Amino acid sequence: MSPSLRNPLLIAFIAIALLVLAGSTFASVPETKQAVVVRFGQPKRVINAYHPGVDFGRTGAGLIARWPFMEQIVWIDKRILSIKMERQQVLSTDQLRLQVDAFARYRIVDPLQMYVSAGTEDRVSDQLKPILGSAIRNELGKRPFAALLSPERGQLMANIQRALDRVARQYGAEIVDVRIKRADLPEGTPLDSAYGRMRTARQQEAGAIRAQGYKQAQIIRAEADAEAASTYAEAYGKDPDFYAFYRAMQSYETTFAPGENQGRSSIILSPDNQYLQEFKGKNR
Amino acid sequence: MMNENRGGPWGPSGDGGSGDGGGGPRNPWGQPPRKRRTPGVGANVGSIDDFLRRSREKFGGRFPHQEGRPYWLYGLGVFLLLWLLFTCFHLVGPQERGVVTLFGKYSRTVPSGIAMTLPLPIERLQKVDVGQIRTRDIGSPDASQENLILTGDQNIIDLAYSVRWTIRDPHLYLFQINDPEATIAEVAESAMRAVLATVSLDDAIGAGRSDIEQRVSIVMQQVLDRYGAGVRIEGIAIKQSDPPAAVNDAFKEVSAAQQEAQSYINQARAYAQQQTARAQGDAAAFDKVYAQYKLAPEVTRRRMYYETMERVLSKVDKTVIEAPGVTPYLPLPQVQRQPQEGAAR
After folding, report:
1. Which residues of B touch A209 (CB under 8 A)?
2. pLDDT tens-digit profile of B248-285?
3. When you count CB atoms within 10 A of the terminal residue's CB, does the N or C end of chain A come out lower?
4. Of B194, B50, B256, which Cα lies nearest the Cα of A203?
5. Minimum Cα–Cα distance from B323: chain A residue
């Protein structure tokens, strides 16, 4: 009776012990992690280490076995990680201040080295952050401000990446990419003076546009006047004498007619006037 | 006894229910309850004893396992069955793909539909929505916050745009980058700034926008492909590209100047049309008159002269001074006053 009562407990105990043993022997390594197997604090081997160009599914991920209780697994991220730099003030060679936000992407390619030298990804990131900042300050400090806004920028980034990569290697990391996220003029005088420059440039443009408009308008008027003159010349040139008479007639009518805002006219005629020729009756 | 007797045959039964079974033997009804009760009590007590005994027998007896299993082993069985059901069969939606990992190792990507895998600790299926177009906004069209960017000609522009992207390779998306969404946003920002550093302010504000959108999307795709992010950039949409608020007035002045210049030109055109038309009209009128004049020059000239003079002189004050020897007296005040009156009128 009594051994039969103990039996299920024993079974349960054995099952649990087996589970614990299995749990501390087997582990599944996901694609996103690298595993450093540590025996009594001594890193022994790396599982699922990063190798460039290896497709997922052909990596070392999967089920692994280790010595239970003796060996621990330290997980290290296999994915591309990011370092975000604090905003930096950078002074270019032409004494322009810039505020630069940059980020770097890195991947831990030597987990063993990384485990020995830094321990965790966060600490790698912390170590690289100031170096990224100083690399950027050094590179940008060697160049004029305009270099940031030119094709030279690519070269600049490559230099920064190289400098950072040299350090990152010591931590078993590889810099995948360094990019400047933002490069702005700092608030205050630099920004204001840039605004001032933009403003005056626009005002100048506005002035130029107005002058251009005026110029075109004048040209259009002059062309019209010229065309009208040529039209007149062509018509009146046929008989200048008759034109003089014809125009004089029109002119008298306009000049002496009591128009809206004109004063009344008084004309003093001499009897010798041609108009009064017949009035005198002389010629008859 | 009197009570019992008076109670007749019913009394004992009633008392028998509440009291003891003393009066019971006399009555045929008295007995059954007593009998019933005694076995009842006996049965209850006996059943507990029985149970204990029997359960002891069970563990040590003939069918110890068959009898003990059902409660917890059936439960375990049902649990395992459900576990298998839920972790072996997966419904992958029409826009989704399932990424299957075997002990963490990438095994395969399954299309939408019902997918079968090994149960959970062995194989795991993660669903990834590949149809959904995700949008990430950078900067905002809101005037209160400016996303200032330097352009190639060292001007500053306030830009708001959004990135639309989808997941192209689900397994790459899951395994390659730590925080894909933040990565995309950062890459977008850096690509946008890199592209804007090569264009002028005027292009960025005006005609070059679609070109910028395209170039940014190409640059982003290249960078993300180099990361192996498994992401496709569907497009960039510039929602706002304005000069910063601080210099907006100067920019408005430019457009005002453009309007002004245009109005100068319009006025000049109107003048030109008038001038030309008038010249043509005058010339045509002259031509007509001249044609008549040609027919009879002397007469026509005279006729026109008199007609004109008639019209002119009929409306004005006339003074004719006849005698050549007489000093003409001009009523100057009157002559002068008249124009004044005319002016006053």
Report:
1. 254, 257-258, 260-261
2. 888 888 889 999 999 999 999 999 999 999 999 989 98
3. C
4. B256
5. A271
